[in-house]
Amino acid sequence: MAELLADLVQEIHPRQWEGGGWMVTDQGALIGDELAVWDQGWPRVSHGWFQIGPNAVIFNDHDKIAYVRYELWSEEPPQAEPEWKYSWSGEIYLRTGRIQLSHHHPQEDEFEAFDLGRPGATWRVRVLQREPQSVPKIEYPTFVHMVGIYKLQFWGPALPREVPEA
Fold it and tell me: Could you give the CA distance from residue 96 to residue 111 in angstroms, rounded to a whole number?
């Protein structure tokens, strides 16, 4: 049975980052140790309300307060409740194993990093978005009304593929 091992909730205010969205990325990209979303040639796939790349998730929501919750699970978590209108599952490579909230254009804003505990791994991830609505205090720090609500659930990491011996 899947067990929630760690979680962190962060609040984003649009006035912090006027003129751009936000992303959750591997900490290595923020310090220039690897390709980042602002680098030419950074591959991405659009899913409408967000984009996914090799080491980051970019959110297109930048006009209202948003809350993002990170969760680390022992194995694949239970399927999301129906209130989570949008969902995507896949894999993401995190060289440092630490994710951090950031603006599209790095600034001095510092957000606490969320440590998944294993660097250099491809993690399984589920990205969820809930419709802006009133949300009870169960998963988020305050009773929030008409804000963006997001959740990133990580488990795995995916085991490396074994190459058969010749």
Answer: 16
Task: Give backbone dihedrals phi and psi of 14, rounded to 5 degrees, phi first.
Answer: -60, -30
Pairing of strands 4-12, 50-52: unpaired
Provide long-range contacts, Cβ within 8 A and 24+ apart, for 155-162.
155/2, 155/72, 155/73, 155/74, 155/75, 155/76, 155/77, 155/123, 155/124, 156/91, 156/121, 156/122, 156/123, 156/124, 157/118, 157/121, 157/122, 157/123, 157/124, 158/91, 158/121, 158/122, 158/123, 158/124
Q: What DSSP state is assigned to residue 74? A: S
Report pLDDT digits (tens) over 81-98.
888 888 999 998 898 999
Domains of the chain and CATH, by start: 4-155 (2.60.34.30)
In sequence order, the β-bridge partners of residue 23 are: 58, 102
Is 78 in contact with 2 (CB distance < 8 Å)? yes
Q: State both tokens at 125.
A: 């991830």
- Helix (H), strand (E) at residue 29: helix 27-30
| CA 85/CA 31 separation, integer angstroms | 34
Number of helical H runs and strand E runs in the chain? 1, 11
Q: Tokens 């680098």 label which residue?
A: 39
Distance between CA atoms of residues 154 and 71, nearest Å: 6
pTM, two decimals, is: 0.81
